Every structure is written in C-alpha cells, then in structure tokens.
Amino acid sequence: MSKTYTTHGTTIKGETIVGEARKISDIKVIVKSGRHKAQRVILKDNAECTIAKQYKFIK
Q: How far is it, in rounded angstroms, from Cα 51 to Cα 49?
C-alpha cells in the first residue's frame, strides 16, 4: 500500500519520478555540484508525483 504525502517540505527520491500538473513552469538550468548541471521545473495546480523506478542502491 502506498502513502500520499501532503506536508510542506516533504521530499521524494527515486531513479525515475513521474509528475503531473495542470500548470508547469519553464525549464530552468541549476547547478548541482561543480560543473554538473541539472534542470528544474515547478508543478502547480493539483500537482502529483509518483516514483516510477526506485533506487537499486541508496545513495
């Protein structure tokens, strides 16, 4: 049985995460570590994320 987390600041982590929302922001490039880059989008209005593939090894 899966849980639904609705508390502000709750973080989910996984290998693949699927997100759905009515509104999605533009893609923004962010710095993760050193020269490594990542992308960030913000989901708004009835947003929901699900872990589609969990980590094989916890990092």
A: 7
Where are the domains positioned within the chain? 16-53
8-58 pLDDT tens trace: 999 999 999 999 999 999 999 999 988 899 999 999 999 999 999 998 887
- And the tokens for 31? 């710095």
Neighbours of 30 (CB within 10 A): 8
3-state secondary structure the chain: CCCCCCCCCCCCCCCEEEEECCEECCCEEEEEECCEEEEECCEECCCEEEEEECCCCCC
